[in-house]
Amino acid sequence: MNPFDLALRDFQLRRAAERYGNPITFTCGGRCFGCNAPADISMLKKCSGCGAVLYCSQKCQRLDWNGKMMESIAHKSWCSKFKAHLHRLDTVQSVIKSFPWGRVEADGTFYNDCARAQFYLLGGAGFGFWSQSGMGLFEEAEDDESMKTHRMKWPAFDEHWRAIKQEKAQITFMNGQDLLKATHLNDKDGWKLPQNLLVRRDFTATARFKAPHRVRSLICNWDDWHAWRNVPKSSPASLLMHYPLTIYWILCHTLKLASVGADAHNERVHLTVHYIGAEVELNFIPILSELALLLPHHDLDIVLFGPCVFYLGQEGATAAHRTSLISRSAHDGNIPIFTYDAPDSCGSGCVRVFLHTASKYWDKKDLPTYGKHPDAILACNAGLFTYDASHNVVHASLEDRIPFAVTDYQEYMLESNRDTVVLRSLLRNTHLNVVSRPVELNPFHQPGQRYLRRANFAPNLVNGFIFVVYQPED
Ligand SMILES: [Zn+2]
Ligand SMILES: [Zn+2]
């Protein structure tokens, strides 16, 4: 069964049950936080210290406490931090529950595919901005030793798991595949949603739709954004819009480089952002137009970097794609792949998106390619610190005093990065008086907790947390 068919079936089951007043929840079971073995979540025992992580046995808990399990960090040094992280749970659950399609499963997760299935937003080629394949419940169930044991124990699970893996492999999909076409997807073909639920960017005379009013004060959360945009919360748009809104929030609130107060009488604000590790973003570049609507009197250039951008550029440079959108960018990085001018009534902001197709990773030597020094470096949900290349970026950011912010799924990942990678780099640059800022919850995270691969109830969200690696002092 195709994972989306499964999600569609689950949605239908849920809808029928709710019609009779019986809410149902789905879960694929958890995994012991210590040994990683799959188990029914109700059979696992919580750490009494933090209440955030679950174990299959006392033995596992004891070993993990002393740092003798898979995770190299001893839980005893993280227990109190996890407890603090768990305090965010009410906030993030109230966000997902505020959407009519939002549900919290028994294990605290949000079944994203099931929500998408009800709008028939199935991934793969031809699904517009949603062509990224779903994060199925089994997405992360890799074929390791513990999974093999699990599959041997439960033949039904094994059969199901095999079928999903097979179907998933058949979903044709490449990040940015629509950039091999000659034109960008319009609002209707990109969003694949009913007219009243999509997020418009086309306010030309022929489109006959009214642009949102000019932003006068900072938009601080999903409720604000939906109200300003006049998009009902029954729309699943936030499941993609968290990308542009996270950029907006970091530029305005976190780094304070952009401001809604930029006045018509003042000069325009020019900003260049180097956005590293772009992958799924390549499927919905036109929604970055939102930043032009959100930022009156700003000219924002966003340059996308990453292995996906590089490979897409190689494909786009071939003769077969001579007339494609990407072809020109592949040959000349100074030609934007996408440009959007907000209407005058919105404050005439402008966004241009560039693809850095020349190399796989962000490198300082690539800076002159775009003629301008970046005003900020962002890495959203890019797992940046898992790459050695991250050291280059951290060093360049510090040396050249370029503000640099990243987002990640979990607070503890960023805190451990802060304590290791970043601090080590900072020590080599002691002439800078760098203030280590606390990790922030991003109000524009993708609503809903992700599937918990290893039982840890602390919030785990796409674009969940923001960490400022470096920001010059005022
Ligand atoms: Zn265990
Ligand atoms: Zn604990």
From TrEMBL:
PROSITE patterns: ZF_MYND_2 (PS50865)
Keyword Signal: no
Keyword annotations from UniProtKB, A to Z: Metal-binding, Zinc, Zinc-finger
SUPFAM superfamilies: HIT/MYND zinc finger-like
Entry coiled-coil feature ranges: none
UniProt xrefs under Pfam families: MSS51_C (PF20179), zf-MYND (PF01753)
Record's keyword annotation contains Zinc: yes
Residue ranges of every copy of the MYND-type domain listed in the record: 32-79
Gene3D superfamilies hit by this protein: 6.10.140.2220
UniProt GO molecular function: zinc ion binding
Descriptive protein name: MYND-type domain-containing protein
Upper taxonomic lineage: Eukaryota, Fungi, Dikarya, Basidiomycota, Agaricomycotina
